[in-house]
Amino acid sequence: MSLLRLEDIGKRFADGTEALRGLSFALEEGTFTSLLGPSGCGKSTVLRLIAGLAAPSAGRVIWDNPRDTEGLGFVFQEPTLMPWRTVWGNVYLPLRLAGVSRAEAEPRIAAALSQMGLSDFVRSYPRQLSGGMKMRVSIARALVTKPRLLLMDEPFAALDEITRARLNDDLLALQRAEGLSIVFVTHSVYESVYLSDRIVVMAARPGRVVADIEVLGPARRDEVFRTSDSYNQHCRVVSQALRAAMGERDRAA
């Protein structure tokens, strides 16, 4: 089932920069979609338009069910945790802002922390956590609102390879358990192929879709898939599409 559609989206900023032009694609419910492309192609801008944090200059973002906009979570590249609040307090924040009492929020927070492996860190402060643990808190904070769609803007880019691989696996397990739809911004071909059902490749100046690639992998991704011929073949196809997108950017420059 379709969740939302972006139809002929254009975005021009106040300084005249044209960030997006003629961008169109649909998101299917329960799928994992990655936005892949060079810096400056408008991937983060697309997330902000979907989230309603910005408005398009042209075109439309159409939700099949307008009420679905209420079930949306956003995870940024930086965890953006409040240093004076505990892990529990940081995860409680969106519920607190929504007027949910601490007593009512308690089981939801406990569930979100458990899903992200944070149950033993409830009273810890951000300064006591590693980068990977801080990102887990950020994801738990998004999950506590029970979103149907999770938008993630390069959340693992600053993490080491081992931590990143673990969080990739945890994110896929979470998606299966919750039936989430996820839109994930990344610069990594390998990460996008491992995580995604579909990869939307974008070119810059202005940002636009140049390839829409289905990843025909197993329902459960693991090290067997990561070392398979199928995975390597998909990486080659996506790499070629990304090189073509970067070539278009260079010609536009």
List the defining traits of the structure above.
single chain, 253 residues, alpha/beta, Rossmann fold, 2 domains
Concise account of the structure shown:
This protein has 253 residues and is an alpha/beta fold.
Produce the secondary structure layout.
Elements: E1 2-12, E2 18-28, E3 32-36, H1 43-51, E4 58-63, E5 72-75, H2 87-97, H3 102-115, H4 131-143, E6 149-153, H5 161-178, E7 181-186, H6 189-195, E8 198-203, E9 208-214, H7 223-226, H8 229-252
Parallel strand pairs: 3-7, 3-8, 5-6, 6-7
Antiparallel strand pairs: 1-2, 1-4, 8-9
Helix pairs in contact: 2-3, 2-4, 3-4, 6-8
- Which residues form runs of ≥5 with pLDDT under 50? none
Number of strands: 9
Biggest sheet record = 6 strands, mixed
CATH superfamily of the largest domain: P-loop containing nucleotide triphosphate hydrolases
Determine the N-to-C terminus distance: 39 Å
- What is the 3D shape? globular
Please trace the helix and strand order, writing H or E for each element. EEEHEEHHHEHEHEEHH
Structure classification: alpha/beta
Helix share, percent:
25-40%
Tally of DSSP helical segments: 8
* CATH topology group of the largest domain: Rossmann fold
Residue share in β-strands: 15-25%
Structural overview:
By secondary structure, this protein is α/β, with parallel strands linked by helices. It folds into two domains: 2-71 and 148-252, 3-Layer(aba) Sandwich (Rossmann fold); 81-146, no CATH class. Helices cover 40% and strands 24% of the residues. It has eight helices and nine strands. The N and C termini lie far apart (39 Å). The model has no long low-confidence stretch (mean pLDDT 92).
